[in-house]
Prior knowledge:
Layout: H1 10-21, H2 28-45
Amino acid sequence: MERVTLRIPKQQIEEVEQLVETGEFPNRSEAIRSAVREMINEQQDGRHERTGKRNWAKV
């Protein structure tokens, strides 16, 4: 696995931490990996063919 450094707004990382604390994910890294997998799967499934792409950068 490769290491990737990224910046995430404080509110979003607090929400990720909440998912970890409630046991939905074992740690931050797995929560973020899950989000990336979901994004890739949606793109591959063609769920956003009509618009051409999804705006993942919304905060």
